[in-house]
Amino acid sequence: MTEKQKRFADEYLIDLNGTRAYKVAYPSVKKDQVAATNAGRLLRNAEVKTYIDEQLEKIHNEKTADAQEVLEYLTAVMRNEQTEEVVVVEGTGDGCSEARTMEKDTSIKDRVKAAELLGKRYSLFTDKMELDADMALDITIDYGEGDGA
Hints:
flat; Arc Repressor Mutant, subunit A
């Protein structure tokens, strides 16, 4: 991949705008139509596409919580292992007050919500019952008298 192609790909990763990225990497191109066409061509280039896909995967892995991280966080909240910082205003006398921050335990409401989400994940709360049974089914139709049957 050339240096300009890499510059294009890096610029493209900023906002996924191919036209803008092309004009930054190739400043001599002034027309949007030409930049858009060439950007599309570059985005189909195997090396550029692979590079962009690798960078997007890195960004995704660094910025996005995976399922394990979410479950660990919910468990920590449920077990009251998480605290949050809150601002508290206290009166100091003569109509004056002072603000300070303090650590606060997780509320019962938040702990219950975390437990609920974990319970849903593990199907602990279900109204449906699964039944697996082997049985014979006999259907008898009684036509009664006078039907001519």
